[in-house]
Amino acid sequence: MKRIFNLRLEEFLALLFFIPSLLITIKANLYFIEAGMNIPRRYYGGLTRLAVTLALMIAFYYFVKYRPLWKYTWWLREVMPFLFCIAIYTNMHDTIGFVNPHDVHDTLIRIEQWLFGVQPVLWAQQFYHPWLTDYFSISYMNYFIIAVVVVLYLLVKNRPLEMRKVLIGTILSFYFGYFLYILFPAAPPRLTLATEFTRDFSGGFITHMQNKLINLNPSSSRAAFPSLHCAVTLISLMYAFKYSKKLFFVLLVPGISLVLATVYLRHHYVVDIIAGFALAIFTYFVAPHIDSWWNNLRRKYATVDDRLLQLQEQEFTPHDTFVGSNT
């Protein structure tokens, strides 16, 4: 119990999700071995990725246990769990089909037809234009910036408590999304409706590079519902609005463009976007309660000093009573 609660919530979740991710990846590799087939690169590459992640985790948890208050490297403890989260996501994204074979994308397509009378990804073909495709390709790739920019802004501004609130909300969005991927496996419309598209994309270098990245994903991808691109974008905008209105307005147009890009580029159904927004709003309000519950347990069971717990105590305790206290 003491060793578990020496960990922060996001650190514990990384360990918790790493185990099934590893087992699922092993299962995927064994499937091809038993079938006498060559193992696709994305699956044996997944083992390599997890091995590297495990090595980093061991080094990280050594750091947490023995050097929790290094003066100039405290930020490593803040950001490393996010990197673990992305590594685990990549593996689970590739291997969902080996966990739950009951796809729901046909149901999503029927819902789209009932809601709109058309398939939005097919309807969007009328707007295809090379420069618009390049714009939306850039917008879609901005996801990697939007997901971290609020955290980095608060880190630079030396606002560690607010930074971690954003970090834990973003990380929980990913982990909740992983769980929903397994419950509701769905292939993206670029795969399920491939025979119904009547126009191809045309664009420049940006579109070409993004298509190469997309082609690295497995054709059996089942990580469409909900859209984590939209979930993480919305929750990042919500945190930006809370902590920096200027940053919010800087991110607003790129965020809206990213959401539109998910349909224009055939990556998501509109219902994926709706589900992603619902996930973001749910996580935004639930994350502080989950984190507070975990931290209360840590105060009871933890045996090492933690800068985070000290800062939280300082936030609610007058400074003259905090100095010199044994938190």
Automatic annotation (TrEMBL):
Major subcellular location class: membrane
SUPFAM superfamilies tied to this protein: Acid phosphatase/Vanadium-dependent haloperoxidase (SSF48317)
Annotated InterPro entries: Aur1/Ipt1, IPC_Synthase-Related, PAP2/HPO, PAP2/HPO_sf
Residue stretches spanning the membrane: 12-32, 44-63, 75-92, 135-154, 166-184, 223-241, 248-267, 273-290
Subcellular location(s) of the protein: Membrane
Topology term for the membrane: Multi-pass membrane protein
Keyword Membrane: yes
Entry annotated with the keyword Transmembrane: yes
Residues spanning the signal sequence: none
Keywords, alphabetical: Membrane, Transmembrane, Transmembrane helix
Record-annotated Phosphatidic acid phosphatase type 2/haloperoxidase domain positions: 163-288
GO cellular component, one term: membrane
PANTHER family in the cross-refs: PA-PHOSPHATASE RELATED-FAMILY PROTEIN DDB_G0268928 (PTHR31310:SF7), PTHR31310
Protein name as it appears in the record: Phosphoesterase PA-phosphatase related protein
Organism: Caldithrix abyssi DSM 13497
